[in-house]
Amino acid sequence: MQPRVSSLEEGKDATIKPQGRVLPLNLIKFLLLFMALGLVFSVISMYTTRYLGTQNTLPSVHSGYLPCFKESNNFQRWIRPPSNLMHSMTDEELFWRASFVPQLKKYPFKRVPKVAFMFLTKGPLPLSPLWDKFLEGHEGLYSIYIHSLPSYHADSPPTSVFYRRQIPSKVSEWGKMSMCDAERRLLANALLDISNEWFVLVSESCIPLFNFSIIYKYLFRSRYSFVGAFDDPGPHGRGRYNPNMVPEVNVTNWRKGAQWFEVNRKIAVSIVEDTKYYPKFNDFCRPACYVDEHYFPTMLTIEAPQLIANRTITWVDWSRGGPHPGTFGKADITEAFINRILEDNTCLYNNQPTSICFLFARKFAPSALEPLLEIAPKVLGYG
Ligand SMILES: *[C@@H]1O[C@H](CO)[C@@H](O)[C@H](O)[C@H]1NC(C)=O
Ligand SMILES: *[C@@H]1O[C@H](CO)[C@@H](O)[C@H](O)[C@H]1NC(C)=O
Ligand SMILES: *[C@@H]1O[C@H](CO)[C@@H](O)[C@H](O)[C@H]1NC(C)=O
């Protein structure tokens, strides 16, 4: 650009200068010669360009690769979700790819936002028939991702919504960084589908407490992402903080919360792209600091406090005491029991009090499936 601009300006000066002046004859002769040479050069260059230009277009005109070329440049390739969830990307490659965010906020196509249900499991999904009922009729509004132990071979039938929804997985252990790695892997894979807008982390023992439309609206109308985060001054809260985490993490920012979250796309990206807090938690939050209870709540309290509700919407029963929450089996499941979960709650939703505080509940044993399927149409609103 620069040379062309300056030569144009020089030319402009040259035409302005001679006006009103008598030029010496030698200079006129020199200018004429210069113009003649310029003409010859421009004619030569015109022909050269035309000849070379023709040559350049020849291969593509006769190329058999034209349809292929067209296909790979199609707009669809940017908005179509991956057809096969299995891939050979490393976590580093996957997280990099998943962190892409468009800068133009208006989508140039009709984007129907979806909920990504991300199952963090050991293997089988014993409650999948209940989820099938919950999702029935809402195709196009959700997607499924499953992270299980790599040794587990899924056997969902092709008719199931869980068929071939496994993502490349690694061994993950409760309370260790490998658990957060698995959660980030689920988020990253789900982010590859540009239509996923909410990201719901569930386990094989979770159930939905309402029908799909209610859950979809509750999430999409929420101003905040649901991440449990509270400041526990005791030994199981601040007691697990390690002062080596400064300056990135101060004890005043230290938070605790259950790992089961429901986050929007913006928060999902900030979890996947984090390189600032990860090393600190990886080095200084090891058992008896259970990193999956502290990493995301603390990081988001520092990075995005105005975007999280600080509460979970996954119900769990701690009333029995001990380090593990209550698990419910066949004998526990009655209408009255489910109604007890749904009632007697108050919490804030978009800063207003509401009685709907939980959309999901855990933990349910495989034996709970049969009675749950039976009472679901009446008390859960699906099936
Ligand atoms: C979901 O439940 C609500 C309230 O019970 C009801 O009004 C709505 O029709 C239900 N939606 C579907 C798709 O069943
Ligand atoms: C932690 O405290 C230090 C000094 O008080 C401050 O410079 C730093 O910004 C704080 N970090 C966070 C994440 O609040
Ligand atoms: C969540 O907690 C943070 C401080 O930790 C606060 O700034 C934020 O307003 C809280 N979110 C809501 C919705 O109250």
UniProtKB/TrEMBL annotation:
<keyword id="KW-0808">Transferase</keyword>
<dbReference type="GO" id="GO:0016757">
    <property type="term" value="F:glycosyltransferase activity"/>
</dbReference>
<keyword id="KW-0328">Glycosyltransferase</keyword>
<dbReference type="InterPro" id="IPR003406">
    <property type="entry name" value="Glyco_trans_14"/>
</dbReference>
<feature type="transmembrane region" description="Helical">
    <location>
        <begin position="27"/>
        <end position="47"/>
    </location>
</feature>
<keyword id="KW-1133">Transmembrane helix</keyword>
<keyword id="KW-0325">Glycoprotein</keyword>
<protein>
    <submittedName>
        <fullName>Core-2/I-branching beta-1,6-N-acetylglucosaminyltransferase family protein</fullName>
    </submittedName>
</protein>
<dbReference type="GO" id="GO:0016020">
    <property type="term" value="C:membrane"/>
</dbReference>
<dbReference type="InterPro" id="IPR044174">
    <property type="entry name" value="BC10-like"/>
</dbReference>
<keyword id="KW-0812">Transmembrane</keyword>
<keyword id="KW-0472">Membrane</keyword>
<dbReference type="Pfam" id="PF02485">
    <property type="entry name" value="Branch"/>
</dbReference>
